[in-house]
Specification:
Helix 5 runs parallel beside helix 7 and helix 7 packs antiparallel against helix 8. It contains 13 helices and 53 strands. The N terminus is likely disordered. The radius of gyration is 31 Å and the shape is globular. The chain has 856 residues and is mainly beta. It folds into six domains: 321 residues, no CATH class; 92 residues, Immunoglobulin-like (Sandwich), CATH 2.60.40; 100 residues, no CATH class; 118 residues, no CATH class; 92 residues, Sandwich (Immunoglobulin-like), CATH 2.60.40.10; 61 residues. The strands form 14 sheets. Strands 15, 18, 19, 37, 38, 40, 42, 43, 45, 46 and 47 form an eleven-stranded mixed beta sheet that branches. It has a four-stranded parallel beta sheet with strand order 2-1-4-7, with helices on both faces. A four-stranded parallel beta sheet has the order 9-8-10-11.
Length: 856
């Protein structure tokens, strides 16, 4: 069940967030470079899914962590098991491989426990990785998990900032955007992965529905809907809308947020990249029978990400995603970034899906001035990556160099230049702000927001800042948003270069589609003769007074409140477009509290219509909130006309000339990757790579392998021989997915026979590192094997069917010949949808020979 606690956590006034952030070394918009994939070595499904994730997301082989000693199932583990089996090995891997400041995402590849529990609380594994295991606070309704401890607050929420600059301040160790990539079977989990990858940069226009259901305990997020709709519309995305429905039988959606106990979903409900979830108690019981529909239903219906709680949470809205996550996606944030920014207290919530999916990301273009694959380099050489911005509002701000997938050096970092001047003109009134020293886009946004608020008496606009974004709200009640104009620009000022930019979301403010409301609560048990009364003053000045009196002993406050609500809704004077109505009644009396509540709504949307006033009167024995005369404007921030400003840093085109000292890297073959980040809070990555040969010493080595070709069956024995060019060798070590596969000492030639089953099905790189006794190091070129199931073709009769085992989602050529002296011909190419492929064979009067060949 879901215990009822109604909580409003959105402020009714904009909050000024003044943040000054220090210059950083590593940026991160989110790519395979920033991911650690965790696999359970005791699960072939976990290993294969992790391998496929690494291939599809270009995760470096050193970014794989193998859990080798866990056999306790996929549901629960204790905090000590979580610590010893996952967290400590993860932190050790990051430290030993110089990845601590590079990794921000953790992907848990199925068959890893998703709940951490002991006597002090229950957390999801993803939340425990995000900001540490959180114990329960004082219980509500006698249920320990119905609590909201202070240290469970997520400071990253609503930040609209790069994660490295806004990690949760209650994290006990490193913080990670952790998501579990899983389902009830491998095929379903693999589909989630591939849909997430396919979503990138697709800019979908399909609808997002924010559904207010008839389930009063689970529809409580509806107060957050208008803000999410408004933010998206200001940004030009009109696909997000609210609806009143219990239905989930949709198709082709980009998102759905609802509140239901149990539901069914069509298989094609969602398109790739979608976020979808429901507010209910046990959606996070993904592999348990809770009596409620698990959130995996959203993934099986096509979504790329979902969220549910793993223990009874009460219906605190802070514990569930705010629909503003769809606005964050529209901005270009990855799925994990958007989701984690939308949950204020995620400690009991499980994030499931493909974290890097970024449907609205915008990539720039990249190249190298004079570097080609195979180039030999030595000494100090000039590297010249070239980048062009995806758009003028997404300039190129910083470039990092990665060597073999590991951060090596920041090549350039363009921050807002001290002395640049940004100007904002609101209805002809200009506000200027000069960029100070050591500024970031977030600090410029905060500074400009403060400067605008100092002039609010002239502009009649109130602002607040969120990362690089400034939100503006027009204060005059009766001035339409279209009459409030907004322009902005940046000038070089006293700086040597103009690296600061500012853009507006739209040239004039946008009016809301939201309807004003007032939240009313009545308290205490009524005595005989007690009364409650409301006077409604319409916007034309007309007043209507309605009231009820208790004339029956034992009447509850809920009954009296319901009677008043019925009078309001039955009043002919309040039926017109300038009237109001009541809805969303809840009676606390059956739960042992003498209280009741309902919402009053203006009958017309917009700021002016919300100015209808109410004044509640009660006898001295009773209490009511709000006190005094009030408009329908509890959601005032959702009613005022709105606009956005965005701050960015960088330049539209950037060529880097970086002196690269090749002696700082081992000799041999290396992949050099230059990664540029756009200058917004999204920091989307654009990368370009080249494989080069570095040679500064005489030591070389070769890597040879068996079997021949680039595919190896799971049962085949892999054999690698490493041969150094000299005899004074101290160590030869072989590496592949997950790290070292073995080493030999004090020999010039070494043979290795790694286990194919240990590595698992999938694509794997192999390379060796050779060290001589003088300390010189040489890294061989990569050799790639795709490990596939054994190809054993069988024929069944009546009817005749060919059958063979497959690697799901890969292609196979079915070939035949009527004479073994002539070449085989391909009949068809089949992409496997499961572990087995079956192909019917037509009977002929002549002999035929068949074979299967792995295609890709």
């Amino acid at each position: 069940m879901l215990y009822f606690i109604r909580v409003h956590h959105r402020a009714t006034m904009l909050v000024m967030l003044s943040v000054l952030l220090a210059a950083h070394t590593i940026w991160a918009g989110g790519s395979g470079l920033n991911v650690v994939v965790v696999v359970n070595q005791n699960s072939t499904n976990s290993v294969q899914l992790g391998n496929d994730y690494c291939e599809l997301r270009s995760v470096p082989p050193q970014n794989v962590l193998r859990i080798t000693n866990w056999t306790g199932g996929s549901v629960n583990w204790s905090p000590s098991d979580f610590q010893n089996q996952l967290l400590n090995p993860l932190l050790a891997l990051l430290a030993s491989r110089s990845l601590t400041q590079q990794v921000q995402y953790v992907v848990l590849s199925m068959d890893i426990p998703y709940r951490v529990q002991d006597g002090t609380g229950q957390n999801s594994t993803t939340a425990a990785l995000f900001y540490g295991f959180k114990t329960n606070g004082p219980p509500v309704s006698g249920i320990a998990s119905c609590s909201l401890p202070d240290n469970t607050s997520n400071s990253y929420a609503y930040s609209e900032s790069t994660f490295f600059l806004a990690r949760p301040n209650t994290a006990t160790t490193n913080a990670f955007l952790a998501m579990m990539l899983t389902d009830t079977d491998f095929i379903s989990a693999e589909k989630i992965l591939r849909r997430g990858v396919a979503a990138d940069a697709t800019s979908p226009t399909q609808a997002v529905y924010l559904a207010k259901t008839s389930d009063w305990a689970r529809n409580v997020r509806f107060t957050e809907f208008d803000n999410a709709v408004f933010e998206n519309q200001v940004a030009g995305n009109f696909a997000v809308s609210r609806t009143n429905t219990d239905s989930t039988t949709f198709t082709n959606l980009f998102g759905l947020q609802t509140g239901l106990y149990g539901y069914g979903l069509n298989p094609n409900t969602f398109i790739p990249g979608s976020l979808a979830d429901t507010l209910t108690s046990f959606g996070g019981f993904i592999l348990e029978n809770s009596g409620q529909t698990p959130v995996l239903a959203f993934l099986d219906a096509g979504a790329s990400g979902t969220y549910g709680t793993i223990v009874e949470p009460c219906n605190y809205t802070q514990k569930f995603p705010d629909p503003v996550d769809y606005f964050y996606q529209t901005r270009g944030f990855s799925l994990a970034e958007a989701y984690y920014q939308s949950v204020l207290n995620p400690f009991q919530g499980l994030f499931v899906g493909e974290p890097l999916a970024a449907p609205f990301v915008r990539y720039g273009t990249a190249n190298w001035t004079s570097l080609t694959n195979g180039t030999m380099l030595g000494g100090t050489v000039t590297l010249g990556p070239i980048f062009a911005a995806a758009a003028t509002n997404l300039p190129v701000a910083a470039v990092d160099l990665f060597v073999d997938g590991t951060y090596f050096q920041t090549l350039t970092n363009l921050t807002p230049s001290a002395g640049n001047v940004v100007s904002v003109v609101i209805n002809g009134f200009t506000v200027n702000y000069t960029v100070p020293a050591n500024a970031t886009v977030a600090s410029v946004a905060a500074g400009l927001s403060a400067a605008l608020n100092l002039q609010s008496a002239s502009t009649h606009v109130l602002t607040g800042n969120f990362g690089d974004r400034i939100e503006l709200q027009s204060l005059p009640v009766y001035t339409p948003g279209g009459n409030v104009t907004l322009t902005a620009g940046a000038a070089i000022g006293s700086a040597a270069a103009l690296t600061t930019s500012i853009t507006t979301a739209r040239p004039a403010f946008l009016d809301t589609v939201a309807t004003g409301y007032q939240f009313v609560t009545f308290y205490n048990a009524p005595n005989m003769g007690d009364w409650i009364q409301v006077t409604v003053t319409k916007t034309n000045g007309t007043s209507i007074t309605l009231g009820v009196t208790n004339t029956v002993s034992g009447t509850t406050i809920g009954a009296m409140s319901q009677n008043l609500l019925n009078l309001i809704n039955g009043s002919a004077s309040l039926q017109s477009t300038d009237g109001l109505y009541g809805a969303d009644f809840f009676d606390y009396d059956p739960y042992g509290s003498a209280a009741a509540q309902f919402f009053l709504y203006a009958r017309t949307s917009g700021f002016p219509a919300a100015q209808i006033l109410t004044y509640f009167h009660v006898t001295t024995n009773l209490f009511v909130t709000p006190a005094g005369m009030n408009p329908m404007a509890d959601n005032v921030c959702d009613l005022r006309p709105r606009n956005h400003l965005y701050i960015a840093a960088g330049t539209n085109a950037l060529t880097v000339n970086y002196p690269f000292d090749t002696t700082q890297v081992a000799d041999g073959y290396h992949q050099l990757t230059a990664v540029a980040y756009d200058g917004s809070s999204v920091a989307a990555q654009t990368a370009v790579s080249r494989t080069v040969l570095l040679q500064n010493n005489s030591l070389t080595a070769t890597l040879s392998s068996l079997p021949s070709g680039t595919n190896a069956a799971l049962s085949q024995q892999l054999q690698f021989t490493v041969t150094a060019s000299t005899t004074n060798i101290s160590r030869i070590e072989l590496f592949s997915t997950g790290g070292s596969l073995g080493f030999a000492t004090n020999q010039a030639t070494a043979n290795f026979s790694p286990s194919s089953s240990y590595l698992g099905l999938g694509l794997h790189p192999f390379y060796a590192v050779v060290t001589d006794q003088s300390g010189h190091v040489y890294q061989t070129s990569n050799f790639w094997y795709r490990i596939i199931p054994d190809l054993r073709l069988s024929l069944a009769r009546s009817p005749s069917v060919l059958t063979w085992a497959t690697a799901p989602f890969h292609a196979y050529d079915l070939q035949y010949s009527t004479n073994l002296t002539v070449p085989f011909q391909t009949i068809t190419t089949i992409t496997a949808a499961d572990w087995i492929v079956q192909w019917p064979v037509s009977r002929t009067n002549s002999a035929a020979f068949y074979r299967v060949q792995f295609d890709r």
